[in-house]
Amino acid sequence: MNTILHQIVQTSPELAKLTRAMYLRDLDAWITFAGEDPTGWTRYKAQEFYGSLLERMQPQSANRLMASLKYASSWLAKKENDPALDFAVVQMADGKSKADRRALDQEDALKLLATCATDSPIDLRDRALIVMGLETGMRRMSLIGVRIDTIKMSRDGYPVAPVPIKGGGDELFAVPLSDAVMIAIEPWRQWLRNRKVTKGPLFRSLARKMDGRGKLMYTVGENPLSESAIYKIVTQRAKTAGLEHVHPHIFRHTFITWRMQGGMQPYQVAAITGHKIANITGMGALGGYVDVSRVGQEARQTTPLWLSKLIGRRS
């Protein structure tokens, strides 16, 4: 990337080589979130970006990343002699605790799903997105990577979705999909098929407009939803449901909590979430002897009964 912010960091004489490289990587994350158009670099957007960082990293790590953005934005304001351009001014966490890691309970999950209970395309898409999050614990980067045409049967006979995962580089991780997921995404996939959309991202943008007869029409975009779009969908649905502190990453906390409460073993959780076995609590030396690719069948069948029944009623 080569925005004016990158140029400021690249030409700064006071930054050490390693610091400069780190700042540039941090700026890449900001531009991916906020876009390359400087008109979108606002304090509101910076606060939203910071909130998204707190979903997936310790406050001290998020604060360090924001320091890179603060450095570039303050120099941009000086360069242009315009204090308003110093946009990276956010309310920071104290760095002493992890962002809210609670899981949704059954009542909260039902309230959230109730906000997308109709057969409108937007509700079909958002319901599929929420159920997939609850049933796989996927991060937003993985949800973005789910493709219509690559959901397939595994060698052991159950559906999987190859997606990118954090720390996985270019290699895709095959996430086992439960029956509840397959039931929830089918109405959305059928809506897409009716519009001859059979390849590409599963979760994508929708635009609404009125036709000449006053009928509401929907058009579907070609690109996947962005991470910020998924964040907005989930937080707005939560607000409608009267829920606080609900964000996309809470699906990951919820999935792991529900599965572990249901008696699933840590290596089975890893078969779906993509966690490294060495980092799963309680595995000990056993980790090196478990082939997580072969335990997805059992792991995917432990959907909470209430959720399975709820989704099944819509099939």
Q: Could you give the order of the helices and strands?
A: HHHHHHHEEEHEEHHHHH
- Summing up helix and strand content along with how strands pair, one would put the structural category as mainly alpha
Query: Which strands sit side by side, in order, in the main sheet?
Result: 1-2-3
Residue share in β-strands: 5-15%
Count of DSSP-assigned helices = 13
Low-confidence residue ranges: 96-100, 277-290
- Overall pLDDT, averaged? 85
Rg, rounded, reads 21 Å
Number of strands: 5
Examine the coordinates and then state which fold CATH places here, giving the name of the CATH topology of the largest domain.
hpI Integrase, Chain A
Task: List the domain count as a whole number.
Answer: 2
Describe what this molecule looks like in 3D.
50% of the residues lie in helices and 9% in strands. With 315 residues, the protein is mainly α. It has 2 domains: 4-85; 106-312, Intergrase catalytic core (hpI Integrase, Chain A), CATH 1.10.443.10. The strands form 2 sheets. The chain has a 3-stranded antiparallel beta sheet. The chain has a two-stranded antiparallel sheet with strand order 4-5. Strand 1 (152-153) and strand 2 (159-163) form a beta hairpin.
